[in-house]
Structure formats: C-alpha cells, structure tokens
Design goal:
The chain is mainly β. The protein is 6% helix and 38% strand. The chain has one domain: Sandwich (Immunoglobulin-like), CATH 2.60.40. The protein has a five-stranded mixed β-sheet with strand order 3-9-8-5-6, with no helix packed on it. Bound molecules: copper (II) ion.
Amino acid sequence: MIRFSTPLLALGLLLGVSACGGDSASGSTTPADVDVDVRALDGVAWNASSYSATATDGVVTIYGANDSSLPHNLYVQDGDGTQIGDFIDLPTRGSDGTIDVELAPGEYRIVCLIPGHSAMNSALVVD
Ligand SMILES: [Cu+2]
C-alpha cells in the first residue's frame, strides 16, 4: 500500500521508516557510508533526475537499489557514454549493491542499459 511516487517519500524511507510488507515498498536500507543513493522506481525511472556527490580521495561510493517490479542495472558513464568503473546489477525488487568509482570533479550520467530503459538517465555531479 505504500507507493513511492516522489523522491521525498523515498527519502523518508531512507530515514528509517520501515516497510510494512506491502507490495511495493523496498526493505533495503541505505548503507551508512555511501555518497549517492540511487533507486529505481516503478515507471522506468530513477528517483531523481540529478544527483550530487563529493568524492573522497577521488572516489565516489554509489549505492543502487531496485524499488520497482522490473529488472534494472546501474552504470556510470562520462559525457561520451563511456562506462566508468563497475556497475550494479539490480535484477529484482529489493536487490541492491554498492560500487566505489574513481571520478574526477565533473558531470557524469547514471544510466540503466536495459533496452527500453533509456529514460533512466540522470546526472551525477561530482565535486
Ligand atoms: Cu532499467
């Protein structure tokens, strides 16, 4: 019965409101030390159109979680569409993962490369 329709609601979940076992709420809890929290929502969408992060020693820690009913993956690309670092596979609702990616300050894209999911293309601004 809980539906994630806005990033604010998703954020609320991150702040510790636990899912009640409904059909769509994710039970995944964001790890403590991540710089970016990216969630796939129903409707083939990330939970934000733009993310920002501060690199620590040149590394950004990215957490990805699947809060939707479709399979997804999470890749970081530069402006030319070249993959940077590792990726996160998000095959089912509730799947998640964390990657450390070396990123210089600048703007990148967070994308899902599953065919038909090109709408899942958000900015990642690193400072
Ligand atoms: Cu996807």
